[in-house]
Amino acid sequence: MSLIQLVITLVVIGAILWAIDRYIPMNAAIKKLVNIVVVVVAVLFVLQYFGIIGSGHGIMVIG
Q: What angle (nearest 5°) sits at the alpha carbon of residue 7, between those of residues 23 and 21?
């Protein structure tokens, strides 16, 4: 993935988040939680793109 594709991906994520915030009515607390989750996932995506963190293949979720 090139740097331009990364920027385009982040712009699309931002546009989708803006559309959700603007047009989908929901409680302010839920909206804040959605925003936080999307930002955290986007930051992890960028960190993984630059190789700062690994791919997460060794992570086990115990249920």
A: 15
